[in-house]
Specification:
By secondary structure, this protein is an alpha+beta fold. It has a domain of 137 residues. Helix content is 39%, strand content 18%. The protein has a 5-stranded mixed β-sheet with strand order 1-2-3-4-5. A hairpin with a 6-residue loop joins strand 4 and strand 5. The chain is rod-shaped. It starts with a helix and ends in a 9-residue tail after the last strand.
Length: 198
């Protein structure tokens, strides 16, 4: 075989090798692209999880605000001394000075919205039922609905020092699917309590 023929075979092999390098490079680029896309999807999932946790915390905060207001309301003036009655629809509004103590248990704490009880919108809480048409300020994002509470008179407390009340409260986050329900038992003592008698 002469030198020219060998040179031709070498150049042919070199061209084939260059083609293999191109194919290998393209496959490597494809693999890197797929890995990058999967990483971005993972970041999106983490952001959704963080957003859901934030909305859950907002709902719990709204419910606790209503619960604390109900506890405060029981201690104001003669609210606890007035006694309880049969509660029925519609919802009352604590922001208008309304409130009630019920002598029957809440029919179902988990079926929302409640049609009995009291709603309470804390100061600076932005409640808009349709936030999609609103330009949102991050520091004051709208809540789906105002929080509410239900106070049930449980009768005389176990320690015989006062009246016991069950307070159920709910709060929404930014949507109807983000909701929290909290419950507490609260005792209101009237007059002087003999602590040494117990």
């Amino acid at each position: 075989m002469n030198a020219r023929a060998r040179l031709g075979i070498r150049s042919l092999l070199a061209r084939r090798e260059r083609g293999m390098a191109l194919i290998t490079s393209l496959l490597l680029l494809l693999i890197i692209t797929i890995l990058a896309l999967s990483m971005f999807r993972g970041f999106g999932s983490q952001e959704k999880i963080a957003g859901n946790l934030r909305e859950k915390a907002r709902a719990v905060h709204a419910a606790e605000s209503a619960q604390q207001y109900a506890e405060w309301w029981l201690l104001q003036g003669n609210n606890a001394a007035i006694g309880s009655g049969t509660c029925s629809a519609p919802l009352l509004n604590a922001n208008l000075g309304q409130g009630e103590i019920c002598n029957q248990p809440l029919p179902s704490a988990v079926d929302l919205p409640w049609n009995i009880g009291v709603t309470y919108t804390p100061p600076n809480m932005n409640v808009i039922p349709n936030p999609s048409s609103l330009t949102v300020n991050v520091s004051n994002e709208p809540y789906y609905a105002p929080p509410g509470f239900y106070i049930e008179d449980l009768g005389i407390a176990k320690d015989q020092a006062g009246e016991a009340y069950r307070i159920d409260a709910y709060g929404y986050g930014g949507s109807a699917t983000t909701v929290a329900i909290v419950e507490s038992t609260y005792e209101v003592s009237q007059g002087i309590v003999c602590l040494s008698c117990q």
